[in-house]
């Protein structure tokens, strides 16, 4: 005998959408970040050429790639909201991962470009116009800081195990872009001041390499985490062994097997398992099922599927 439980709200079906305003707010924040990055990358490029700053020119290309990546993220975010179909039975939530993957690759490509630009600045040193560089850094801090805080504050919240517009891998990648830009401009601001008072123009190339290494390191981490989700690794916020231990504590359960936990998009977790029950305990299968579902929810599994069995040896999936 098998009882299966499926969470209704995988795609928001049968759910009161009182959080629609949060979604629209986040979309407008993403659009704002896109236009700010696109416009400011042009300003950076012109300013970098006028100030002879390799760091600013490199960051102009970086911001331009940011804008393209955020535009892609907006497109895929809209696609991911589509409901389940006969072809995509879980819906389109995993399309978030494509955007996160693209954003991480863009970051890595940008960091490599910046290293090459810095190397060239050492080979062909130029006098840096530190005052113009300093004002561009102040403007960069203001623009990117505003965009970062806007997206961060519109990230939604977590409610009863559900992610309502929260920060998934996609929005985390975008926030990583903008936060790194804020830190980068803070460093450029300090570097511009050092160049202005000391005349050490080589600081510009050094800053470029430092920023590139920092961005590359964090982008690599985000890329690895995204690939883990795509490969259906057990989510980091789920302790699988502890889950199985807690499940065995439920009265009436004699065996738990074929346990699988993975994430759709890095925030919405899916889990399935087989539970062998002993009817002699007096507990009904429905009572045991309800306890299993409740326990899985405590372990941050929002979409549980449970198969109840009465004979362990009859299951062909016990060693899967």
UniProtKB/TrEMBL annotation:
MF terms in GO: zinc ion transmembrane transporter activity
Record's bilayer topology term: Multi-pass membrane protein
Claim: Signal is one of the keywords in the record: no
Residues annotated as domain Cation efflux protein transmembrane: 31-231
Keyword Zinc: yes
Pfam families: Cation_efflux (PF01545), ZT_dimer (PF16916)
GO (cellular component) term, any one: plasma membrane
Compartment list: Membrane
Keywords (A to Z) from UniProt: Ion transport, Membrane, Transmembrane, Transmembrane helix, Transport, Zinc, Zinc transport
Location (main, coarse): membrane
Transmembrane segments: 30-50, 56-76, 96-119, 131-149, 182-200, 206-224
Cation efflux protein cytoplasmic domain mapped to chain residues: 235-309
Record-stated family: Belongs to the cation diffusion facilitator (CDF) transporter (TC 2.A.4) family. SLC30A subfamily.
Protein's UniProt name: Cobalt-zinc-cadmium efflux system protein
Taxonomic source organism: Salegentibacter agarivorans
Lineage: Bacteria, Pseudomonadati, Bacteroidota, Flavobacteriia, Flavobacteriales
């Amino acid at each position: 005998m098998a009882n299966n439980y499926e969470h209704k709200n995988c795609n928001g079906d049968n759910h009161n959408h009182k959080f629609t305003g949060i979604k629209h707010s986040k979309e407008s924040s993403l659009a704002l970040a896109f236009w700010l990055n696109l416009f400011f990358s042009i300003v950076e490029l012109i300013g970098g050429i006028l100030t002879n700053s390799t760091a600013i020119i490199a960051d102009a290309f970086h911001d331009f790639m940011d804008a393209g990546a955020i535009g892609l993220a907006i497109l895929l975010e809209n696609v991911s909201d589509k409901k389940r179909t006969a072809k995509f039975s879980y819906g389109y939530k995993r399309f978030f991962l494509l955007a996160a993957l693209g954003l991480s690759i863009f970051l890595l490509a940008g960091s490599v470009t910046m290293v090459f630009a810095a190397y060239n600045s050492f080979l062909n040193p130029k006098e840096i116009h530190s005052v113009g560089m300093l004002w561009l850094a102040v403007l960069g801090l203001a623009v990117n800081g505003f965009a970062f805080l806007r997206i961060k504050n519109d990230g939604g919240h977590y409610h009863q195990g559900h992610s309502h517009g929260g920060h998934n891998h996609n929005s985390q990648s975008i926030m990583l872009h903008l936060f790194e830009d804020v830190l980068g401009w803070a460093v450029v601001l300090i570097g511009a001041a050092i160049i202005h008072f000391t005349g050490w123009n080589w600081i510009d190339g050094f800053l470029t390499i430092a920023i590139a290494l920092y961005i590359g390191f964090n982008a690599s981490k985000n890329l690895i985490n995204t690939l883990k989700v795509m490969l259906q690794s057990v989510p980091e916020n789920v302790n699988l062994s502890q889950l199985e231990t807690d499940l065995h504590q439920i009265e009436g359960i004699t065996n738990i097997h074929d346990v699988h936990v993975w994430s759709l998009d890095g925030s919405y977790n899916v889990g399935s398992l087989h539970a062998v029950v002993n009817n002699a305990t007096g507990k009904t299968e429905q009572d045991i099922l309800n306890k299993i579902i409740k326990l899985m929810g405590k372990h941050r599994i929002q979409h549980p599927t449970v198969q109840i069995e009465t004979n362990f040896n009859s299951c062909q999936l016990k060693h899967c």
